[in-house]
Q: What sequence folds into this?
């Protein structure tokens, strides 16, 4: 594609599975559930990626979802099979549904810009994530609390607002 508009539009409500690496010049929009079994690079076109249903990501060696124009997980994010890194290259990472899976999750919205991470409340106070690392320009931690089964790290050059309890079975968040 040219990088103008969404590179892939999935209008069906059934599950779409990508069994190998995905690379596009712009974002993806999807109505139904999507499964990514390998790394994903959604290039720096002009369209963010919007997933209206659940996204499942992960592989035995870990996987990275890079979305240069931002990414919205409207139906949630399930980690399966290995650690998952979501990198927005300075754009917004929006969590709009439950975030689950006994794996490590890294959310990096800072690389190359001043991106944000919204919807951390979707992780909740009793998550089964084994670790959580979040990097953004600024962060606002949810008033309902935030806890995972392992360590948590928050990095925000512009500051972190703590609105509720933050904890981990592995000890305090850093």
A:
């Amino acid at each position: 594609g040219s990088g103008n508009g969404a590179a892939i539009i999935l209008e069906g409500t059934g599950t779409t599975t990508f069994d190998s690496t995905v690379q596009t010049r712009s974002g993806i929009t999807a109505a139904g559930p999507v499964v990514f079994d390998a790394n994903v690079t959604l290039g720096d076109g002009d369209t963010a990626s919007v997933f209206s249903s659940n996204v499942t990501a992960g592989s035995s060696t870990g996987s990275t979802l890079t979305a240069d124009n931002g990414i919205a997980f409207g139906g949630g994010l399930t980690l399966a099979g290995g650690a998952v890194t979501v990198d927005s290259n300075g754009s917004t990472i929006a969590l709009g549904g439950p975030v689950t899976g006994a794996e490590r999750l890294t959310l990096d919205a800072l690389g190359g810009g001043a991106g944000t991470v919204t919807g951390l409340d979707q992780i909740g106070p009793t998550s089964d994530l084994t670790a959580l690392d979040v990097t953004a320009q600024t962060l606002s931690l949810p008033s309902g609390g935030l806890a995972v089964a392992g360590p948590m790290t928050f990095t925000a050059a512009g500051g972190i607002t703590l609105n509720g309890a933050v904890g981990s079975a592995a000890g305090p968040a850093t």
